[in-house]
Amino acid sequence: MLNVDTSQRKGSLKIYVWVYCLLVTCGTACFEVTLFNSGMIAQDQHKLRKSEFIPGYLKDHLVAILNSAYAFMILVGNGFFAVLPGYYCFVCCCMKTFFVHFVRKSKILITRQEYRRILKIYKEMNETMIMVDNFMSLPIFVSVVNILVTLFWLGYSFAFMPNVNSATSIFVAMGFIQYFVLLLITLPPAAAVNHAAARARETVLSLPGWFPKRYSIIKMYVRRRFMHKTALTLWKIYRIDKSLLISAIGTLISYGILFGTLGSVQNSNNENQ
């Protein structure tokens, strides 16, 4: 096994986890308060109360249901969709640490002629990475899509909302900051793991050259076991790399400009009519 001094790392990781949970809890509470004081819910409540198609005795009940739905949406958004990226980020940090330490440790093991130990350690790490991707690729894909949709919805709602008060501005600003941070703790750490895993794989592929007497045996074993590149992906569709974050932000901005242009054209047509 790979001997890593984990006592201090475990203590630091626990602190980071508790701090992250505290930030998520405080963020959820602030979201609830600012949302119910903003004009976003008040506008929907006004539409329900003024609707001619809803009986009067049902309007108060529907308003209560609407408030509960918004509250549930915030709890789910800041629960599952905020905890999952944090968990994924901590997993990625641990995996990157092991891959980086493996590359450093391999140099020492090569001088000791312990190639079997190198292959055994890398086999365990490679299997762990495959297991993490099989388990997390779909949830992370759903989480990234939710983050991008939420960022777009916040910007679109803020741009085309008729009455914007200070509470609404605070809510939108907090939403942008939180979900952009969630995007930052999801994609870049996974890209860093893939980069570290690629370096570890290069170390393993170079092993036959370091052991000329065992060249054929090691090369055959490596080709049979490790020729397939393992990486963290989004639902087995896209390999997460550094450019994915820029592509996602660029797509978000492009669609924002498109919908903003369409909305401006529609408003101009309505005014002319």
Automatic annotation (TrEMBL):
Keywords tagged on the record: Membrane, Transmembrane, Transmembrane helix
Transmembrane region(s): 15-36, 135-156, 168-191, 244-265
Top-level taxon in the UniProt lineage: Eukaryota
Name by which UniProt lists this protein: Gustatory receptor
Organism: Caerostris extrusa (Bark spider)
